[in-house]
What does this fold into?
Amino acid sequence: MTQTKGHKRGALDGVRVLDLSRVLAGPWATQTLADLGAEVIKVERPGTGDDTRAWGPPFYKTREGKNGDAAYYMVANRNKSSLCVDFSTGKGRDILHSLIPKCDVLVENFRTGHLAKYGLDYESATALNPRLVYCSITGFGQTGPMAERAGYDYLIQAMSGLMSVTGETDGPPTKVGLAISDLVAGLYASNGILAALMHARATGQGQHIDISLLDCQMAVMTNQAANTLLTNENATRMGTRHPSLAPYQVFEASDAPVVIAVANDGQFARLCDAIGLDGLHHDARFTTNTARVENRTALESLITPLIHARPVMCWIEALATANVPCGPVNTVEQALAEPQIAARNMIDIMERPDLEEPVQIPASPLRLSETPTGIRKVPPTLGADTKNILSTLLGLSEIEIAALRKHGII
It folds into this structure.
């Protein structure tokens, strides 16, 4: 894979991924691999490509003033190559069958069993390449009574119980403000792929990774699920409050909301001193976290008017000095403008020749000292690398490539 001049080798340099996924969970997993240095070949439908290219507004504008790719597509497809192939055709399938032996990983997120008719299922793919790590990402997994159903993030948030614990106590169930089930599944998928790659390198044997959005979301229900299993009591919505910690919530300052997150008794004592409740931490109702949770309402009634008396920045400064976790409730725009975000280089800025403005997306949060992540490729235009991949990896001539394009196969 061509690297940016002066860029160190990535941890996954030399690993090639055939990416048959689209939308978010699969592309999020493969972008993580790409950021770590893997060569990712994104397989897309000729003419339309990944659905998220059209998931807007907003869209990036082309130099001709037309709608280009949506921001949604850009955020999950950095450092990849785009190969257009219609694998519903025999010749399209032949192209992918020829690429599989040249790849280390295949990622797909089609409905369970869908790829078998194209000879692209796990059994068919590993017959072509026994060392292949094959990762399937579906809504409900490869087994169970719902295995063949389509699964979407919103549905998974609802079914997993996540929506039931999100929102105000007296309000309706609420979804998280982004596709958290897709993102979590993508992260679990990339972890599983890395583990399977180590096994394949050691043994020469690939394996099938079965990632279910519902499984992954249930796993990250963590304390809410564990509490329910222990007590047989349903977890409920608590707004910004925490079921097991207090005070750990949003309070209203005089000008805006502020988060105070007290996680231990020492922090609580320092909070009391900082906000003018000297000695309150000796009150038997509040001496331990368990006591504070049990007497949450009384504690809030003491803290709330004091916080409301001063503006947010006063509290952020005072509590930072006291070493009590505290912060603003930012808008997305405010979060992007945080000095800490700039200091950590958490915004990627990339130029794509067809667009009139730079592509700006959140950067990889991975910080590896010897094999750092970085921008090697802007999210590709549809089919940008088709000719190069077919000629370089498969040895097709320009005449053969032109014939495939003429018949709409690429």
